[in-house]
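Lab meeting notes turned into a lecture example. A postdoc, R.K., suggested we walk through two folding results consecutively so the class can see how the record format repeats. The first protein's sequence and structure tokens come next.
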Amino acid sequence: MIGLMPHGSCFLWDPWLTSLHAISDGAVVLAYFSIPFLLLLNRQYIDAQIRPVMMLFAAFIFSCGIGHALRVWNIWHADYWAEGAWTLATATVSLYTAWRLTELVPQLLNTHRDLVITRAVAEQDPLTGIANRRGLEAALHALPPQPKPMNHSLILVDLDGFKDINDTYGHGVGDQLLRLVAEVLHSQIRTIDVAARIGGDEFALLMVGCPPEEALDKVETIRQQIQQIQLPDLLPAPAHPLISASFGISSFDPSQGLTYSYHQADTALYSAKHSGKNQVKIAPPEGLPIRPTPL
């Protein structure tokens, strides 16, 4: 039927031109009708605040689909009054929808901005300004599985004798120390890496694309820099506290999940703490003993 002579002379009785317009408008009709259908199937996910506007939007899209269907119909018929009347109805719905959106769009944009800010705050440690445990976990879960093993390193850091510093000099000095340690960690990693405070005086590092053997030199540099930290509030002081930290390094494979790698790094950290502290240990493949790194 698509090749039959169209109504009037606007298509010059050309079957190819007729086919082009009929197929193009027919495809638009199919697309326009599918959008309200998808919204209907997923209506339970639409927030009550925007549901009225979404219904208007669906009506507008559906009306546009009918308008294109009438254009196909009028290739062979002359119901231009019907097409014009429906175009007027579509214009009315679209103008009303646009008017409603002028009220709703600023609210939605503000809500999105607030959500972004809230998420950033929720994943940041308020004392040190680096990531917290939630931020670290989000970064770990965002890593895609890699075909090669040991592409990333997870490092746990625990300050030595932090409780004694708190008890001797007060929590204000302890908080100052935590901030200075966070500055050292943050200054020694790349922009693609993550430094996090995961609780108390325990920190963690995620070194992306860096296996433990390659991360070792950087971690050793961090260990030495933490030793050089001076607490300004205590200077000059004849007995400035010795500040040091112990480190446990584990490979992190996203396909194995966080729990396994965290346990490996924690075991290495535990070994470092109980072997004299102020040292770095790497968690070896399962079943092999943990080896210390030279100081």
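The second example is placed directly after the first for contrast:
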Amino acid sequence: MMAGMGSFNIRGLTELQREMEKLQDPNAFVEACAKELAARLLRLVIKRTPVGDYSGQSYTCETGFSHKGKKVKGKQGGTLRRGWTAGQRASAQGYADSLTVNHFGGTYVIEIVNPVEYASYVEYGHRTANHKGWVKGHFMMKISEQELQNMAPQILERKIRKYLGDIMK
């Protein structure tokens, strides 16, 4: 006497196999995570970067920019804040899609830099012009990195849940 064979629908397994094949190339997902973290770091550091206030000082300004609707004579603040860039971007707007990710083995790298010549002095501090005092650093990058380190686990967990949820629909 033979036991009866039940019916089996292979369609569900075939769909699962197709969804699992999407997981075989995780590079796009990892790059998206790296880009989002870099964009968030860029936003944090830009927000934390101080803007120079040159009001009351007599500097000549070739461009004649206006400040708060008024004609201003002198330097304009914000050069350091506008100087932040990530990847090979020309501006520091922080849009994750346009960030360039470099791969070095299993490491994904997005450089966030500020080429303004005095950026390191504002970050870490510096001696005064007369060498008799010290101007404290703002540590805008260091503090922003620490803040992102604290936020990263929740950000990545949300992205992983969404990613797996989209695949397993």
